[in-house]
């Protein structure tokens, strides 16, 4: 199904890292300093940056093998978007990163620090549901909006959810 969605051009398949969901000693993988099992010492800054970069490169390669093209978007677990992570993502070939904070995008938003949109809660969902009811925009009957939405989202509960 993922391959079909990616091939449709309607969906952008992005990475969520390879090992970045892990925690080490209660800290997110990208923020933690790992200790070498051979030397017992913590990794250096250069070793940490190399580990993060390698994880991002692996995540891109895995998705490219599955969907036929490398992802350009990255959504970081735990919202770990420090300068070093953003730079590693840029070097690994990502063009944008979705961070852990919520919000909307404008022209000034840094593509390597995009806010996320959470559908399940918050005022944004109400704003999206009311898009057709904004002052200055034509108002349509619910049935007409539903029919238009079904043309764009066939057999989708998403259309009735947004337009209902």
Overview of this protein structure:
The chain contains 6 helices and 5 strands; from the N terminus they run H-E-E-H-E-H-E-E-H-H-H. The chain has 164 residues and is of the alpha/beta class. The chain has 2 domains: 2-117, TIM Barrel; 119-164, no CATH class. The chain has a 3-stranded parallel β-sheet with strand order 3-4-5, with helices on one face. The two termini are 27 Å apart. Residues 136-164 have low confidence and may be disordered.
Topology diagram in text:
Layout: H1 2-8, E1 23-24, E2 27-28, H2 45-67, E3 73-75, H3 83-92, E4 96-102, E5 114-116, H4 123-129, H5 142-152, H6 157-163
Parallel strand pairs: 3-4, 4-5
Antiparallel strand pairs: 1-2
